[in-house]
Amino acid sequence: MFTETWYPTRDGVVTSLTAFRRGLEAQGHEVFIFAAGSKETRAANTDSHVRIYPGPEWGPYPDYRLAVSPGPTRALLRSLKVDVVHAHGTALMGIKAVRCARTSRLPFLLTFHTRVEDATGYVTTHPAREAMLRRLIWKWHRWYFNQCDAVVTPTEAVKRDLEREAPGRMRRVFVIPTGVDIKRFARARADGAREKYGLGGGQVVLTVGRVAWEKNLDTLLNAAERVASKDETVRFAVAGRGPALEHFTAEVARRKLEGTVRFLGFVPDEDLPSLYHAADAFLMPSTFETQGLALLEAMAAGVPVAAADTGGPTHFLRSGQNGFLFEGTNAEACARAVESALSASGDVRARGQGTAAMYSIERQAEALASAYEDVLKARGARAKAAA
To answer: Strand 50-54 and strand 85-87: pairing?
Structure first.
């Protein structure tokens, strides 16, 4: 598996890779990770199945690295007995994945994790330049899809987007969401998480994810103001860090929302299950998600959820049944969805847990292994027909 991001960075791609690796290895498969990173990360790496390819920080987002160093060779892949090349990004490590698949004549898959075209604001805020950059990104994606034996999308919504933007460019598409550790999140207890993170005794609305411009946190703040105007004891807690943390912290102070909105910073993975159980509702305001792993984690923990009705969350939620959807940038609708989640019935919680249970790490790893088998058979059949 080739990736543009790996530990110590924590994001949805890293969480997805970790989950699929765990699930595949439990089935007896061997998984190798080829990742961009720093020289320090490479020096500290002790995992024989992980290889780090160093490069400089990407200026707008220092957590990400540009892997300018040479990538894996055909000889290395042969020595590792690699059967399938699977890219999890289309930047420099993605290019290395294409080259490795070609030179080794191996089946090649891509998982489309990130709507890069929606993050052009990190490069330019000029409308004409943003539009041009979006066109170039999709042109690149269309070329990249054409190199793949198959493309994996985490949700049906993303599959529809790709089929609309790149018609006829993908040989096969598999919809395989990333699985979550159902038992870990379902069986956890709050265990003092409220005290540890200073959440107080009132109702808590939790958000988990990177604090980034594309995560629609303006809508969260606007909704928080509306909710607090009716019940000033409700607290909004945002777990995560990112390039926009300083901006939104200042915005909370400017609006005098320090008593309503709290940024928790980075929360260690071992604390997350308890933090979910300490919450009364979960909010995913982002309109950027191709899946939204934290949404399934919250549902597995039995927390009522509210989410923007764009992209990944629509794959899992039926509003009013197992959670609540709202129009993405409509703060009033967001506030109503949060209030509905805070007062949700036990049936909504139970249906949410039932939905999450359908997407265990084990089940999703089985689906990915099946996709690998399919592309291996298809590649073999094409080779036989050409002989």
So the answer is: unpaired
